[in-house]
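TL;DR need structure tokens for one chain.
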Amino acid sequence: MNRREFSMVVGGAAASWAQRASAQQVAQQQKAAPGNPAPRLDWLARHKEPILEPGLPIIDPHHHLWQRPGWRYLLDDLLTDIGSGHNIVATVYMEASSMYRDRGPEEMRPVGEVEFANGVAAMCDSGVFGKTRVAVGIVGHADMMLGSRVEPVLNALMRAGGDRFRGIRHGVSWEAEAATLRPNPSTHAGMLADKKFREGIAVVGRLGLSYDVSLYHTQIGEVADLAGALPNTRIVLNHVGGVLGLGSYRSKQEEVFSRWASSIKALAARPNVFVKLGGLGQSYTALRFDGDAEPPSSEKVAARFRPYVETCITAFGASRCMFESNFPVDKISYSYPVFWNACKLMAKGASSSEKADLFAGSAARCYRLNGLV
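>> reply
TL;DR here they are.
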């Protein structure tokens, strides 16, 4: 089956699935991504630019696949993006409350997503769909509020993901004003300090898995406390720490940057923490571009994101930083080729070894992706 035939088959299956999706699946997906709008493909298509450094190897350590009401992003969509000119050698699949099982114990339902991702990875390992090893690493979800009782769930996820399974993400994004503007009933204040939650993270670390955390910048100090309490657990800060731009935060970005930068510098003192450089174009930030009349160039994206990216690299060092696309979430703001061009512009002053880390090496070490770069 060639890629065109594959796209037709998967597209037809996805459309059929969308029509018969259960209310439970839809509710789960909406809970997982409150307020995430779908990208405008016609708007994005209005800007094209040449690919910079097309031979530079890239591991994209953070993307999703899903079928949601009004928004489909499955393997053929991803292949179109990663095939747009940059040298994407591999990707890491990040949980998105997608393809959960619709029966069985509630805590075991996220195993379905890892089964799905592992199947996609096996398809891509065949070579039929190109050179990129999609989902060579898989990060799933388990409820850390189960405490030590999460271990059977983690074991089931590890069986489902086989040698591709790398870790867990349990998002904790919460801030009082944001909770009103972008409600998420699955989070509440103080989760990272909760005794049960920490019991769960301790099991993650004991099993040799990593913990990805998505949150708002007001919570970065809580990540530092968690990392200090569990120094043998690898923690991955998503989206440079979630720079909040909702409500009153939108009009005080200098104050937000100052508080964020201070928290990032303090967090960098924890050697078990990595940071992902991306996610700044999504809907809860004040840095997004989807309100602009025209889609941005890579120069414009780089100029807006550079202070955040450079602060992280200075604090953590290139060996603990990795560029991430966060697609399709960030696709509301720019296309895939524009994003990676912007990353290359922001890394222009880096040494060759630093650049290798930022685009592939740090991700490979963090997620134990041996032999890719």
